[in-house]
Design goal:
Layout lengths: L1 H103 L5 H16 L24 H8 L11 E2 L5 E3 L2 E7 L9 E9 L14 E6 L3 E4 L8 E9 L4 E4 L3 E4 L16 E4 L2 E4 L9 E2 L2 E2 L1 H15 L26 E3 L8 E8 L5 E8 L14 E8 L3 E7 L2 E4 L7 E7 L4 E6 L5 E6 L6 E8 L2 E8 L3 H12 L13
Antiparallel strand pairs: 1-3, 2-3, 3-6, 4-5, 4-7, 7-8, 7-9, 10-11, 11-24, 12-13, 14-23, 15-20, 15-24, 16-17, 16-23, 17-18, 18-19, 20-21, 21-22
């Protein structure tokens, strides 16, 4: 019966997952149909704009060339009209001479006749009619301004859509996720010398299957990539996966996107638990700041908090801090079973997510004027008056910036001063299964100190600050440099120290 129930539960789970995949695929199809409609309308509009620009060029060229013909015609007509005017003047002068010569033929006196003959001869010699060219200065032909558009017409008739680059193929095996960076590699299905550049898009997601259409973040775009590999730097891995896709572009058009690839981005993500932090601490997600006025008005009886006052303050704190994320669990059971706030001199705030296995890393940066702070881990049972490092269930390094700067490691109320420079940013490495808690200079990745122990209960990140503030960076992978140092440390034998122990 139990076996059949388990089998049926697996079938139900399989069917539910398949239905979820089909629903997602339906969303993809509907979104694709919508995109086809939008993109086709956009393509037609762009085509109309291109033809309008072509018409505009042709119209402009037609006007320019027609104007040239008109100017040439006006020049020829003017030349011919000038020549015609000269002909009319010459003809008028010639007709006068002809009439005078005809009249001279009737003169009877020989002397007068000879005189008239010489005068007419002289005038004929200089007459414009005999110097006038009887050939038109210009021709009536306009053939030198004719055009042949046969080649252009053939080019227009041969016009086709530009070749679109094929979709690249992402090489998941060659793509690397490390040090909060993602290196994506891809290739073209066939050689294409016309490719000018690539466009890479990525987005974070908590779903490991095909990219979802609904409830997803927008794609981040990286343009003008010249190679077939690109590294996205400085990411915060606050989601489980990253979807990536690539498209190729030539000088004129972009191709289709590649099939999206999903890369896993493992990292430890947590926020600070404002519901149990000391009232003198102002807590916002991953930032904590000491506030000397935060505890005023808190009623105490013999060193202990008044319950009703504590409840009212807790309600105010809940309103201030907002609702906890459903993906996180508050420290301890909710409601009546939740832990008390830290009080007294325990200016402490814990992370809201436990460490129960694996290797994790986060970083802490203190304000420049921060006078005193601690960074470490603790079991859940840290008392409300307890300070980090002063119990057998907590481990930390402490930085004191009063008269002189002192860096020390603390555990079980034992302190070891560390003779190393104090970094402005501390990296915390926790190997739960290997029983190691190491602190690093987050900038140089220099090892500051390592606790070696056996963790027997889930751990919580812990922070203490007084007269200053701390910024916590989560969503970080264990840096490669830290992993190398840890491997080197693990190979060293006999490297124990006075603060290492087995904690139960």
């Amino acid at each position: 019966m139990d076996e059949q129930r388990e089998t049926l539960q697996r079938i139900v789970s399989t069917l539910a997952n398949k239905n979820d995949e089909i629903h997602n695929f339906i969303d993809i199809l509907n979104n694709t149909i919508k995109n086809v409609q939008v993109n086709s309308s956009s393509a037609i509009s762009e085509l109309d704009e291109e033809f309008d620009r072509l018409y505009s060029v042709l119209y402009e060229m037609s006007g320019t060339m027609a104007n040239t013909i008109r100017q040439e015609a006006a020049h020829k007509i003017q030349a011919l009209q000038d020549q015609l005017s000269q002909c009319h003047n010459a003809l008028e002068s010639s007709e006068e001479l002809l009439e005078l010569a005809t009249q001279s033929l009737d003169i009877k006196d020989p002397v007068e006749f000879l005189k008239a003959g010489r005068e007419i001869k002289d005038r004929v010699t200089v007459a414009s009619a005999f110097r006038l060219s009887l050939k038109p200065e210009v021709s009536d032909s306009m053939t030198h301004l004719m055009v042949d558009f046969s080649m252009e017409r053939h080019m227009l008739q041969a016009m086709k859509f530009l070749p679109v680059p094929r979709a690249p193929e992402i090489d998941v095996a060659a793509s690397v996720v490390a040090d909060n960076c993602i290196t994506v590699s891809w290739g073209m299905p066939e050689e294409d010398s016309r490719i000018d550049h690539f466009v890479l898009e990525y987005r974070k997601t908590n779903f490991g299957g095909l990219p979802r259409v609904k409830d997803e973040q927008h794609w981040e775009v990286i343009d003008n990539i010249k190679a077939t590999e690109y590294t996205i730097l400085g990411l915060k891995f606050d989601k489980k996966y990253v979807n990536v896709r690539v498209k190729a572009c030539n000088k004129a058009v972009a191709g289709e996107y590649s099939d999206p690839a999903t890369l896993e981005t493992k990292a430890f993500v947590f926020s600070l638990d404002s519901t149990s932090s000391h009232l003198n601490l102002k807590v916002e997600d991953t930032y904590v700041e000491w506030d000397p006025t935060g505890g005023k008005g808190q009623l105490k009886i013999k060193g202990k908090e008044n319950k009703s006052s504590g409840q009212n303050l807790l309600l105010k704190s809940n309103r201030r801090s907002g609702t906890l994320s459903p993906k996180r669990t508050s420290v301890g059971p909710p409601a009546r079973g939740s832990r008390d706030r830290f009080v007294g001199e325990s200016y402490t705030v814990l992370g809201d997510t436990t460490i129960e296995s694996g290797q994790h890393y986060w970083e802490v940066k203190a304000q420049k004027d921060c006078k005193s702070y601690s960074v470490g881990v603790t079991y859940r049972n840290l008392g409300k008056f307890d300070q980090l490092g002063k119990t057998s269930s907590s481990w930390c390094i402490h930085i004191n910036n009063w008269l002189q700067t002192i860096l020390s490691a603390k555990h079980s109320n034992k302190t070891k001063t560390l003779d190393v420079p104090v970094p402005d940013r501390v990296g915390v490495y926790c190997d739960f299964d290997g029983g190691q808690l190491s602190f690093y200079n987050a900038n140089s990745k220099e090892l500051l100190y390592t606790f070696r122990t056996k963790f027997t209960q889930p751990l919580l990140p812990g922070f203490m600050t007084w007269c200053g503030g701390l910024t916590v960076s989560t969503g970080l992978q264990v840096p490669s440099a830290v992993s190398m140092v840890q491997k080197s440390e693990n190979r060293l034998s006999g490297s124990t120290n006075s603060l290492n122990n087995i904690a139960y």
